Every structure is written in structure tokens, then in C-alpha cells.
Amino acid sequence: MIEVHALSKHFGSLTAVDEISFTMQPGEVFGLLGPNGAGKSTTIDCISGLIPPSSGQIAIAGNDLIRAPRAAKARLGIVPQEMAIYEDLPVVQNLRYWGSAYGLRGANLADRVADVLEVIGLVDRAHDKPKDFSGGMKRRLNFGCGIVHEPDVLLLDEPTVGVDPQSRERLFDMVRAQIARGACVLYTTHHMEEAETLCNRIAIVDQGRKIAEGTLAELRAQVGERDIITLTGAFAPGHTLDEALPEGVAVLQSEDSRLTLEAEDGPARLATLLDALSQTGAEVRETIVRRPNLESLFLKLTGAELRA
Ligand SMILES: Nc1ncnc2c1ncn2[C@@H]1O[C@H](COP(=O)(O)OP(=O)(O)O)[C@@H](O)[C@H]1O
Ligand SMILES: [Mg+2]
To answer: Tell me: the pLDDT tens digits for 159-191?
Structure first.
């Protein structure tokens, strides 16, 4: 449904997206997971035709975005990170606006608007203006604006930012309902739990580059069975540490105040590890042990925290 080939986008000397490629199949939620500034929104903006790529190709349902932009964009629904709703227009007017922008008219438009109001749970707020709504309600309306015309491909850019847990669950259900009716969804997030919960396949992006891609199981296998141990405190220089570490523990990244290690069976080795460290004169203030997950994969691939 979407083919992105070697997409790059430069802003002056900054490379926001660096040769990213991926394809998306019908019926799947494809996740773009990465920290703020990774290039997720820029990628989405290129696919939606909002900004021109510097290089690379994008095809949507077989239509090249540059050569056949109308055909490529017709089946696309966009739920942008910066919300696309008009705060002073009642909810129904917002939905009608976006429906007619995609060519819906008359009874068809009215039916679709009524459907979407159900889906997003705003039937009894249909004639209210969103300006006084909660973050979750605004996000739901923003989502609704992207699905009025029943797109085959839905681009969701961090659709849960600023929403309460209940609204988030509701948004997840709304995404699943889109899949159930046969659409495919490109879902960006910086929350690994969201990617783990929702996505069939995930591409991990950092500094404009795709650094890993696969199903959750495939990505977990890349981390291996090793736990990630992050220690904060004050540590001795690297080479002394390497020698002091117990068997089965290796350094991923070492800074003066933070040490990131990978370990087989981390919880069981923690006591020995802390003992060994204290003998080097290290002072440990905080200890975090993570089982293998997307966060630890990100840490392993980049040496940085996903949330940083
Ligand atoms: N219009 C722009 N002009 C200049 N730099 C931009 C512009 N849009 C995004 N950037 C930069 O490109 C990088 C990627 O941004 P973005 O795609 O928004 O990341 P993400 O959505 O993953 O947080 C960032 O360094 C950001 O500051
Ligand atoms: Mg973004």
C-alpha cells in the first residue's frame, strides 16, 4: 500500500530524514518508533505530500507521489501531530469540512459524519466547539477528521500526545477498527509500549535513519536474552571497569555518571555486580534492570535512551 524508497529530506545543512525505505501491506499497523527529532513527522509530511522530499521515491497504492499526486493522495487519510481541527467550528463542521475536502457530498457526507461521530464518541458534543475540549477529545476529533472519507492508508503522527489513559485506549480501538475494515496504518510514536501494543511491524528510527525493522518478535530476538542494566552514580574510568565486571556482564556505554551494561540474567547478577563496582571505588545511586524490549534494543543500537 505504501512503498518508500531511499527517502531523504534536508533542511539546509540538517538531514532530517536519511535514506529511509520501507513498505506497508494492507491490513497492518506499521510503526515508526523513535525519539523526538528522529524524523518521524518529516517522513509523514513527505508521504502526505505536505513537503517535497529532497530525494527518493514514494508510491501509495501503486501511484507515484510525484508523477500522479492526485491519485496517490486520494486514498490517504492524515492525522497530523499538530492538530488539524478548527477550534471555533463545531465538531460536525470540522468533520464536514474534511469530508468535503476529500470530495464527499450530500447524503453521503452526512452519513459518514454521523458514523465518525459514533466512532470517536462525540455524538453528544457534535454541536460544541472543540476549543474547550480536553486533550483526549481534541485528539479523537483530529483522528475523526482523517477518516471521514474512509481512506485505504491512514497516517497517524503521534496521535496520543497529551491524552489521558482512557482516551488512549479508545484511540487504540479506533486504530484497530480501521485495520478491521481493511485499511493500513502508519503509526508514529516515541512510546515503545504503544508500538509493542499496536504494531504488526516496527521500524526504529534515530537521527533520520532507520536502524532496525521487523516484527516485535524479530526485534526482541536482536536484543537477545540479555538484560540491560543502567546504573547512575560516579564511576571509575572504563578500562578498570571492564576488568572488574563479573562474568556475563559487558559494558554498552560508559560515562562518568552513567553506566549501561548488558547482562545474562541481570537480576541474578546484580549483587555481584554492585559488589565488584564498589571495589573499584564506584558509587551507585540508582539501578535499573530492563528485560529485553524495544527500549533496550534502542539503547543497544544507539547507546541512548529512547525518551531522552
Ligand atoms: N521545517 C523545518 N525546518 C527546519 N528543520 C526542521 C523542520 N522540520 C523539522 N526539522 C528538524 O528535522 C528534524 C526531525 O524533525 P521531526 O521530523 O519533526 O522529528 P520527529 O517527528 O521524529 O520528532 C529535527 O531536528 C527538526 O528540528
Ligand atoms: Mg513528530
So the answer is: 999 888 888 999 999 999 999 999 999 999 999
Give the CB-side neighbour count of residue 22, counting CA atoms within 13 A. 25
Helix, strand and coil content of the chain, in percent to the nearest 5, comes to 40, 30, 30
Residue-wise pLDDT tens digits, 183-221: 999 999 999 889 999 999 999 999 999 999 999 889 988
User: What is the Å distance from ligand 2's center to 158 Cα?
Assistant: 7
Sketch the domain layout of the chain as residue ranges.
2-220, 225-291
What CATH architecture does domain 225-291 belong to? 2-Layer Sandwich (3.30)
- Cell reading at 251: 559494558
CA-17 nearest atom, ligand 1: 14
Please give the CATH topology (third level) of the domain spanning 2-220: Rossmann fold (3.40.50)
pTM: 0.85
Rounded to the nearest angstrom, the distance between the alpha carbon of 51 and the centre of ligand 2 is 14
| Mutation probe of ligand 1 site: the residue of 32, 42, 48, 209 with most atoms within 8 A of C-beta | 42
